[in-house]
Amino acid sequence: MTDWDSQFDAVWADEELSDAERIERIDRLAGVWGDNAIALFHRAGARDAAGRESEAEPLYRRALLIGLDDDHRVRAIVQLASTLRNLGRVHEAVWMLGDEYTKHADSPYRDAVAAFYALALASAGESRRATSVALTALAPHLPLYTRSVSDYAREIAY
Question: Which of 61, 77, 120, 144 could make a disulfide contact with 93, Cβ separation 3.0–4.6 Å?
Answer without folding.
Answer: 120
